[in-house]
């Protein structure tokens, strides 16, 4: 029963779920209900826009890359869209909705156990950790391995923050 409910919620996709998560998270942080709703609505609109842009970009770049590969007699099967294309695709992955709170919990746990002094306030940059988890999930088909990838990547990033803190002051 629980797994069916979770599957239904996750199947709604990030365009629906991330705004709901933002609304709930904003309310927990003490924002007014109207501001919470507005923040969630903006995230939802942004996701729809990102999806449209990525679709248009791939529709435009894909044929151009294929023509270039044919003209230069190259055997290319992948279009590299860089981080502007990779990060929204990562946020749209099946694992993203769970990876975000996991990466935040790793940070909180490391802070409470004094394993780090880094407080990650830039939620957008969790996409790197989510990307690792999404790749592992896609490669293995295992949510647990994907989540382990998120945890390991997050812990490593927070430790890197500690190690390089002196150099960036």
Question: What would you say this structure looks like, in words?
Answer:
This protein is an all-alpha fold. The protein has two domains: 1-81, no CATH class; 93-169. The protein is built from seven helices and no strands. It has helices spanning 2-11, 14-28, 33-71, 82-91, 96-112, 127-140, 143-164. Helix 5 packs across helix 7. It is globular, with a radius of gyration of 19 Å. The termini are far apart. 22% of the residues are buried.
Number of helices: 7
Supply Rg.
Answer: 19 Å
Order of helices and strands: HHHHHHH
Low-confidence stretches: none
Biggest sheet, in brief? none
Overall number of strands? 0
Structural class: mainly alpha
Gross geometry? globular
End-to-end gap: 51 Å
Number of domains: 2
Helix proportion? over 70%
Strand percent estimate: under 5%
Mean pLDDT: 85
Main location: membrane
Membrane topology: Multi-pass membrane protein
GO molecular function: galactitol transmembrane transporter activity
Protein name: PTS galactitol transporter subunit IIC
């Amino acid at each position: 029963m629980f797994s069916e409910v979770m599957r239904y919620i996750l199947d709604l996709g990030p365009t629906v779920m991330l705004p709901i998560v933002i609304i709930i998270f904003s309310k927990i942080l003490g924002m007014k209900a109207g501001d919470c709703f507005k923040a969630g609505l903006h995230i939802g609109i942004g996701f729809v826009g990102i999806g449209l842009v990525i679709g248009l970009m791939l529709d435009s770049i894909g044929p151009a890359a294929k023509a270039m590969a044919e003209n230069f007699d190259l055997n290319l099967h992948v279009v590299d869209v860089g981080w502007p294309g990779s990060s929204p695709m990562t946020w749209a992955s099946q694992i993203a909705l769970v990876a975000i709170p996991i990466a935040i919990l790793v940070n909180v746990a490391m802070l409470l156990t004094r394993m780090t002094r880094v407080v990650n306030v830039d939620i957008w940059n969790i996409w790197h950790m989510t990307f690792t988890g999404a790749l592992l999930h896609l490669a293995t088909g295992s949510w647990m391995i994907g989540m382990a990838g998120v945890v390991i990547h997050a812990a490593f990033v927070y430790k890197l923050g500690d190690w390089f803190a002196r150099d960036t002051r």
